[in-house]
Amino acid sequence: MRRLPVFYVMAVLLLEPVTPVQWPVSFVLIALPLVTAFAHGPAVVALAAVFALVFQGILAGTPCCAGRDVGYLWDRHYVAAYICTALVGTLGTILAAHRIRRERTLADVRFVAEIAQRVLLRPVPHRIGNLRLESFYLSAAAEARIGGDLYEAVPTAYGVRLLIGDVRGKGLPAVETAAALLGAFREAAHDEPDLPALVGRVETSMTRRAAELSRSEVGERFVTAVFAEVPGDKQVVRIVNCGHPPPLHIRPGEVRELDTGRSAPPLNLGMPVGDPYHVDVYAFRPGDQLLLYTDGITETRAPDGSFYPLVERVRSWGPLPPRELLDRLHHDLLDHSHNRLHDDTAALTACLLPDRAEEGAAHVFSHRDT
User: Fold this and answer.
1) How far apart are CA 184 and CA 45, in angstroms?
2) Which of 189, 118, 198 has its CA nearest to residue 160?
3) pTM score of the predicted model
């Protein structure tokens, strides 16, 4: 786009010698300031307008270049073209100034949105105890709109507690809801001894907030979430699913969804669950990996409309370190959608590392064998 004015003038120069004298191609130079305004600032547009005026005069009254008599220079048709070029140049200069002002405003809004997203989704520690953690957040091409995807990892006396969730909608309402949910989780994760109590505490906090909202707003702000807990003294993972896509359990030779069909309803801000939250318990051995993700991943579409096959893709890659797994997922999503994501995506992975004592014993035995 920045080179378009040059190509435009070159086209005029190529057409001028091959057209009859009665067909002055120089009239199309009237549009040069507007062509320049697409990608340049007001100063460059003003210079383009001056250049167009001078170039029109050269083409109008130079027998050696255009084959016209000097008298054509002040022909009424050319004078009208000069006036139109000046007017278009003025309008193009104003348009370019307005465009730059809007671009700067949008850049500021994007910067503020990015800062707000980083504050909301602070980076998770790369390692907590024997867990190696990695995360990523991939925003859709929705200008400066912040999504409601969220994740968190909190080390507690009861083990490492993980959360991933997705608030319905975008913009400020989604951010407010996500911030309230994260704040409640970060506080309650240290106080509640078991996972159902933690989820209930978060639900209570969200219900309290729902009382401040209108009925229509409550219905628009439900949250799907997965709560997970990896205790430090047992090789298990406990999961409570509240209407969210099931996590993936990844181990050498096996990739499966952790879904027992007993998911609780979403955390819908003021609609409490009658039955206690069901906890699913799975073996979680050293080398195993838990992948939590939002539905933006599984709902990513290819140009032909096909959804992203997450389980099949992860299974085809084989065991990967957490960071490499998320990087591969990141690039594969962009390839699948041809860089046209329509929803925000977030993922959090936790890999159980061997206990330090086990690592030391393995090293001793390996040294003896050597």
Assistant:
1) 54
2) 189
3) 0.70
